[in-house]
Description:
about 80 residues, mainly alpha
Amino acid sequence: MIDEALKSELAALYSTEDRHYHDLSHIEAMLALADEYRGLLDDPQAVEAAIWFHDAIYDSRAKDDGKRTLDRRGAEKRACGAL
């Protein structure tokens, strides 16, 4: 669902200096949990995508970074032909 190029782009977003909690180690920990419980998930690929995109756009001063993340995800899905 998420190709390596997109994972690299998202990893770069989660690796910026202003990340304190929602950083790349947080994503890696959540992905490890998802992998641990993979057999219980109805759609493991959707869970992986949700983990990668859940806070991809981060601006501690903004009130709409969650919406901007969703907007970005919609654009990515359209680019991949998923919508």
